[in-house]
Structures
1.
Amino acid sequence: MHTSNIKFRGGLNKAIVMCSSIVVGIVGLLPSSAQALPAFARQTGQNCVACHAGGQFPELTPYGRMFKLTGYTIGERTVPLSVMGVVSYAKVANTSKSDNPPADFQKNGAPLFATGSVFIAGKVTDNIGVFSQTTYDNYASQSGNGVFHGHMQADNMDFRYADRLINEKRDVIFGFSLNNNPSITDPWNSAAAWMQYVPVPSPTSHQFIDGTAPYPGFGSGGNLAGVSAYMFWNKLVYAEFGTYRTANQGFSFMSAGINDASTTKLQGANNPYWRLALSHEWGPHNLMVGTSGMIAHVYDVGTDISDPNNLGRFKNAGIDAQYQYLLDPHTVTAQLAYMRQKQDHSANALAAGSPYFLADGITPVTPVNASDTSNILRAKLSYIYQAKYGGSLSFFNSTGTTNTLNQSSGYDSNGQITSLDPLGTGISSTRVTGNLSGNPATRGLTYEAFWMPVQYARVGVQYTAYSKFNGASNNYDGLGRNARDNNTLFLYVWGAY
Amino acid sequence: MKTAAFVGMGLALLGVAGCANTERSRNLNDPNVPAKVMAQQVCSNCHGIDGNSTSPNFPKLAGQQEAYFIAQLKGFRSHGRYDPEGFEYMWGISRSLTDEQIKGLAAYFAQQTPAPNPPVHTERISAGKEIFEKGVPSQNVPACAVCHGAQGQGNATFPRIADQHADYIIKQLQVFQRTEERPEGAVMKQITHSLTDENMQAVAAYLNSMPVPAK
């Protein structure tokens, strides 16, 4: 495809020019003294590398972990404000196998100002600190005429009280957190809330970038309201226990900007989250091995929560490990995370069944499972030199039970494969997102290279290559789309102040 | 009911201890926080509670000479010492410390007992010992022991360098030799002038593995 090739290069060049001018802009605008840093760095007066491994956000160094666990209270009080912005560009390998390319690949190959966040973050008292992020999505929605509309909403929030009892013989840090996302409290970056670190822009051209590829996570998602208590004993054992509920009523600020119908609704406040980790440091090395889990009773999105038949349940249990080697000028990190999830579908979802038929167009597909199990594995290795030049390689593999309930393409009553939405379930089911098998299996690799010209800006390029998508390597939607058609090149410029 | 309990827990969480807690404070800008509290709550995160840091990214402070320690912290505070790790890590830490706190911190770490390090490059140790005790006459390098003491224990503004992490020693020797980032170390600039990388590695390997002298 000669023409698309030219377009590809043109778009890429434009993106590079734009990215570089933004970097130059950021470099020029920001004062270069060590004081001119985002809120936490201003509070401690330290450079980002003190807390972030090789300056690689948000991955924390051992000191960064102590800063977080002691409730963000090290340092002196300053203006607790920071801002962050991301400019991005994504290009999907094949945009031709689609019924509606402009809708399936919005802004494909176009640089865009994707998202921005405002943080209120800092020390409040000797024992209380805050990390609170609100994010603006420049492409949150699109009206009929194709115009995009921006939207602001509550992102990660963590309000802490912490204390530390330390002397020559023992060291106990303990604290409480009021937060809106299970594992956001965690100081290790193989935890579900932290492993994925580049924000995912909304336009559909970005639907296959690494951030949307499988990452171990909790079925409940975020924007909940929870409290947890934690303890870190002799830098060896970390334990945390918490429970979550819906972020409404007094807690609605934790889901601010999300309308009531789309807010995740949990049943009651008995949705426990737990975490146990062992950590050890020796010389320039440190290692953590841990486990975490959650049980969440979640109503199907947008349904009537007075009807118990709309209630489903997620049970998650995972293990994760993180190794770091930090010795100037080298930073090496290896992360491994594995999460198993059992989802019990709600009675109503089961009753609705699958809209599809067998190939004869007459026999409805066999009854669905009442529950599904999925397993997601992520392994990532990264190296950074001088906190400036870095690269990473990441492998993901998601497997799980096959369930017709999870099909988003299939045969209609005429024996034709349909990518439409025969029962009007509202689930978009184009050729591009279609899943003919009802199996979630997705596997691939992400390669990344990045450069940090200054400590608060990063330019990155990622390439994500799929060998399996929605259960198959080839023809996963039944309409000829292959996993590798979704391979995506993604460029981003990230900056913070 | 449940909601009330939940809100109550949240408020309790935020309401506890609204005021300063100088016995366990991590505030670096509060002259009332005693030096020992600061050493244990803050400095220990990098330098170790007893000044024996685990990671060679952070110098050991155990048994360090008080006068030298005070001069370095004041150097960071005034930005007089500006080698990269110095400004990245220590400028902010020291910016609001009072002279009184600095004195207290120096006393706290001077009292700690240095712990032995895991050995590095053992094959270089004997060459390093030679340099430490006799210098390198052919390169006009004097014996380190002359100023840093026969056991590397230091004296007043001559720092203790025994049992220091090899990686940190090498880094500092390079800072003295190649930069002006430690202006108070003018003496060391002369001494390191003709030291080769191999000399530095040898002497660092020796210092790293020096037996801890009895107090």
2.
Amino acid sequence: MVKRLLKDLLARRAMFLFTAVPGVLVFLMFFGLYDRSRSILALHSFPDLLFGSSWFPLKGQFGLYPFLMGTVWVTLAAMILAVPISLLSAIYLSEYAPRRIRETIKPVVDLLAGIPSVVFGVWGVLMIVPLVAKIAPAFGAYSTGYSVLAGAIVLAIMVFPTIIHVSLEVFASVPRALREASLSLGATKWETVKHVVLRKGLAGIIASVALGFSRAFGETMAVLMVVGNTPIIPKSPFDSAYPLPALLANNYGEMMSIPLYDGALMLAALVLLLIVLVFNIGARAVLIKAERKAE
Amino acid sequence: MGFRQRKAEEMVFKVLMIGSTVIVTGSLLLIIGTVVVKGFPAMNLAMITQTPKGGYYLGKEGGILNAIVGSLELAGGATLLALLFSLPIVLYINLYKRRKSRLAVFTRFALDVLWGIPSIVYGAFGFILMMRIGLRTSLLAGIIAVALLELPIMARAMDEVVRLVPHSLQDASASLGATKLETALHVVTRQCLPGIITAILIAFGRGIGDAASVLYTAGFSDRIPGALLQPAATLPLAIFFQLGTPYPEVQERAYASAAILTLIILVISLLSRWYGRKFQKNSIL
Amino acid sequence: MDARTHISIQNLSVSYGRQRVLKDVSVDLPDRKVTAIIGPSGCGKTTLLRTLNRLLDGMDGVKIEGQVLVDGENIYDPKIEVTRIRQKMGLLSQKPQVLPMSIFDNIAYGPRIHGVREKAKLRQIVEQQLAAAGLWDEVKNRLHEPASRLSVGQQQRLCLARGLAVKPEIILGDEPTSALDPQSSRIVEQRLIELKADYTVIVVTHILRQARRIADYIAFLYLGELVEHGPAAEIFANPRDPRMKAYLTGEIS
Ligand SMILES: Nc1ncnc2c1ncn2[C@@H]1O[C@H](COP(=O)(O)OP(=O)(O)OP(=O)(O)O)[C@@H](O)[C@H]1O
Ligand SMILES: [Mg+2]
């Protein structure tokens, strides 16, 4: 008997330690990356690195700005494509679609979320890159196809599931009686959605978009394969770009052989982590608050 | 606004909504379709039964067995490691603590935050960890990085199931004189087994498909990894490298490899869905 | 009773999936009277009320048979415009459902949708309805605050005012006082009685005393069947069906 209780006590202590892991891990990642980028932060100021635009590792110049802008461009363009499409689909699925259609399409969306990013990349190379090259002249531009636009299209598809999934949950949390209150005033379904459901779920919808954004911001392989990777700030959607994650993925090989290179890359990872954390934590906090309110 | 106009607006948006839904579902079909159409013609038995021979990346003989086995080993190991952490975490926040306790809420929050961290950052962090403990790029280092990546996915999926276990079940077990630990292991874990297996499958699927986290950590090798400290090839990286060569024959192999990876993922996905469905039917939850 | 029939329900049956919850209900509801739908829990009161403004027919798995005539017009006629039917009927639900917008916009919502644009006109409607609901003095200085900040009782009165702003002919209430404190309940009950001068009022209630206080006409449902209906005075004084008797004496509830 004593042995059993002792075992229970030990297990409780051990499990508590395990439970500390997720929280600790977030901090460890932050401090680990910070620690490794101290070498370069000792020589250059953070703003200089972040907003410097020359990237010549051999000359000791590590301006991250073009990469930062590459990420921002690709991500923003992706969100411009993804947000309306995802929200419209989510509205359709939650408000209009018959249950049978809804229950068929939801798993399809989940399946889309499970496809590895390399496969998205391969598909992008096969279909989207040639497509962009083909349509560029119609816009008076020349493009190899490896471009911001190609990255944005691939990325948009990758964030559909995130936005759709979260906003479906948000819509489901809007009480049916509230919709009926609007309908019984003689509003159409669309008017009810527009004025009541979307407004009631606004915080949650913003959170879903922020989550989608942070997903897109850190996505690496698929984007890397279709954006062209030239370290110049893109000026049009048909230009190629070089996002931060791609920088990290492409140069891990050399980083130990050039002085400060590893510090610069770890700093890039840190910047990526910080931006994603801000969006993520913000979105989660909004969602938790909305959930509390709904209870 | 006249009634006609109101109706017309609704119709316009309905068309846009249906169009969007078609785009979303269509893109999945398009991706799978493209990969299958491009991949299957390039597939042959050698691809999945042989390792790369000399000059494979120039278009010579061989296959990607090294990457297939490497990926399975790596994702398998990582999933095991992630399970070792996820299970105690989930049991602890659901059984030992009240479900809405501060620790439980904070842990879920931390898991959600981890879930959102890009895999390339896990790769970089895995690399730092590797340097700290003096590891080289190896199967083991890859396993650690991917396990970290899988942890939040697995733990959250498990949590969804375990948090539904009714208190009455725990109380019933406790009233028979079982300790919490015994209740956790014998009653709750058994009750939730199908859900736990689903969570494991989901995490495994994510692990096997991820490339960015293994780039820094697992290395790449043409041989099948025989030990934890040897570098390991992975399927996603094999696809990436093959597509990166200038030779069309090798690029074709990338398509074939992508088809293989997609197939594996789909099988895992459907398996977990089927298992989850079965669970819903048979369980008292 | 001498009153004109406003709503005529004819052979109405409703099922959720395989479960039939209303069985061949036929009843004429009088114009400009308060009708109370009473009956034990789960007997189909809410369902009956919701068929009146067609809130059920969009739902998955719901099957509706029979007719509902409003002013002689079958509202289940496929050619009919649902929004027009719904506009004819104001709905008060169990818990007040204020729209996620300001107090002002809650009232102005309906008129705006139906094409009222001028600011002055909207303001006039809002003021008039709030005054009629006895809310004006309480909220006139905070018209642009979110309506969710009002107390539950105030919210329910706001909902009533909001419903009246689209000029309905019928007011439907599903246990509209069940979430309210006694004080607010009284106010809402009182308003419903006043409103029958201009509107047909139909209220679901499970409080017999409330039915006695406000109803002119009673419809008693039991397990989906309309067991008894008629003028309230007659029914309470002289119930015919044994189930009705049992309900009145509190043997079933
Ligand atoms: N959406 C639904 N799907 C399936 N069954 C339903 C649904 N809504 C109600 N029911 C069932 O229909 C029957 C009648 O329900 P209804 O809500 O009309 O009863 P009620 O008389 O209003 O009850 P209460 O007094 O509890 O409000 C009940 O048995 C209920 O379980
Ligand atoms: Mg009811």
